[in-house]
Specification:
It comes from Vespula squamosa. This is N-acetylated-alpha-linked acidic dipeptidase-like protein. With about 425 residues, the chain is of the alpha/beta class. It has helices at about 1-65, 70-80, 95-110, 145-165, 190-195, 220-235, 240-245, 250-255, 280-310, 315-330, 335-360, 370-385, 400-405, 410-430, and strands spanning about 115-120, 125-130, 135-145, 170-180, 195-205, 215-220, 265-270. It has a 7-stranded mixed sheet with strand order 1-2-4-3-5-7-6. Helix 4 (about 145-165) links the parallel strand 3 (about 135-145) and strand 4. The longest helix has about 60 residues, at about 1-65.
């Protein structure tokens, strides 16, 4: 009996020890598993936080300086390369030669990876480079004659930046190159594209034949951007730039150049002709060659800024000074009332624009929807200030004032339309 009890007790102790051992092993494995799970969770959280911080840092860098700071080295590369260029020359002879020239240009552009579509038809070529962030907003460069050479040099450098740095423009770029005197590019674009164009830059051969200083004309917002670019290019280390570009914008106010007959934000580049100077074609070509590098840099930097900026700003200084200068020339008593009304409306407009600029400055650049909305408001304002008639001629073009200065009845009609257009712009901003 004692043996049986001893055996059973020994067996019970054995089973109890085995159970404890198993439980300890299970507890140990569970603890190790829990620690592994905890470590994995902490490591994952750490990696996630680092990833979030890294993305936030990249985002801050991307949006710094109105979206231009992180590509400043590419912009400088662009200006340096454009400072070394020699411009491609186009033929100006028969229509057959022009068609051959057009095909030649179209084939050259089709081989470049920067373009996803190139259309060649008769005397013009349209090449499109899609935008990466705002593909439904368009920056257009239209060129003829010597302007084609500038456009092709710009395309060559932009394509180099694309292939070497994997760069893509923020907005879609459209290059429209035509041989002839008539710009048919606007008629080739759908109403959708026309309404989504943020800037239309024109380089017409006839306007580039002058031997004087640079001058431009266009819609008010785009003009202000051009003046900023003129200051930048003028300050580059080139004495030639100082001779071409006026340092204080007085030339632009004294010699008003007409706008294009377009209902979209635009600017047309030109060189003034010096008084009492008559140059033949060879002299004009030599004069242009002296100006082609700074002009090419100006075009390139302008297209870059219009394409890459998160949101545009309207510096109203030139607009304000120009309209005041024009109004101060009105001294006829019967025009004084409308003159005072225009002054008051312009003051309201400037006040509203100041508020808009404050909104733009306070906007978080990382909120793409907000920046796009503000850009659209500014572009709608620019279109409103163009105030085109049924023939797309701008009713607010101050160059028209000098043409009408001797015809009092037309002047009154012009000033009345000017007042209405500015009132419409004020109402647009107030809404």
């Amino acid at each position: 009996m004692q043996r049986v009890l001893s055996f059973q007790m020994a067996r019970g102790f054995s089973e109890s020890s085995e159970f404890v051992t198993k439980r300890m092993c299970f507890s140990f494995l569970f603890s190790v598993g829990f620690l592994c799970l905890l470590c994995g969770f902490l490591l994952g959280r750490f990696a996630s936080e680092r990833s979030i911080e890294s993305r936030a840092a990249r985002k801050r860098l991307e949006f710094a300086g109105n979206g231009l700071e992180h590509t400043e080295h590419l912009r400088q590369f662009l200006l340096d390369k454009l400072g070394e260029t020699t411009t491609y020359e186009t033929s100006r002879t028969t229509s057959i030669v022009k068609e051959v020239e057009t095909l030649k240009i179209g084939e050259a552009l089709s081989d470049l990876p920067i373009f996803h579509r190139v259309i060649t038809n008769g005397s013009f070529v349209v090449a499109t480079s899609p935008g990466s962030r705002e593909p439904d907003r368009f920056v257009v460069l239209s060129a003829s004659g010597n302007g084609i050479g500038i456009a092709l040099e710009l395309v060559k450098v932009l394509n180099q930046i694309r292939t070497e740095y994997n760069w893509k423009s923020r907005r879609t770029l459209i290059f429209c190159l035509f041989l002839g005197s008539l710009d048919i590019c606007p008629t080739m674009m759908s109403n959708f594209i026309r309404h989504k164009i943020v800037a239309y830059i024109a380089l017409y051969d006839d306007n580039l034949q002058g031997n004087g200083n640079f001058i431009s004309a266009g819609s008010d917002v785009i003009q202000s951007i051009i003046f900023q670019e003129v200051t930048i290019i003028r300050n580059l280390n080139s004495p030639q730039n100082h001779n071409i570009f006026d340092s204080n914008n007085k030339t632009y106010r004294d010699v008003l150049f007409p706008r294009l007959a377009l209902d979209i934000p635009h600017a047309v580049f030109s060189f003034m002709k010096k008084n009492n100077s008559v140059n033949n074609e060879s002299e004009n070509n030599e004069s242009f060659k002296l100006r082609q590098i700074p002009l090419t840099q100006l075009v390139g930097d302008t297209i870059w800024r219009l394409s890459e900026s998160l949101v545009f700003h309207w510096n109203t200084k030139y607009f304000n000074e120009t309209i005041i200068d024009v109004l101060e020339t009105i001294n006829v008593s019967k025009f004084l009332d409308i003159k005072d009304d225009i002054k008051k409306t312009v003051e309201q407009l400037m006040s509203s624009v100041q508020i808009l600029n404050q909104r733009i400055d306070a906007t978080d650049g990382s909120k793409s929807l907000d920046t796009r909305i503000l850009n659209d408001i500014l572009m709608d304002l620019d279109r409103s200030l163009l105030c085109p008639d049924k023939y797309f001629r701008s009713k607010t073009d101050l160059a028209s004032f000098h043409i009408l200065s001797e015809q009092s009845s037309d002047i009154l009609s012009y000033l009345s339309e000017l007042q209405k257009c500015y009132n419409t712009a004020v109402q647009l901003l107030q809404e």
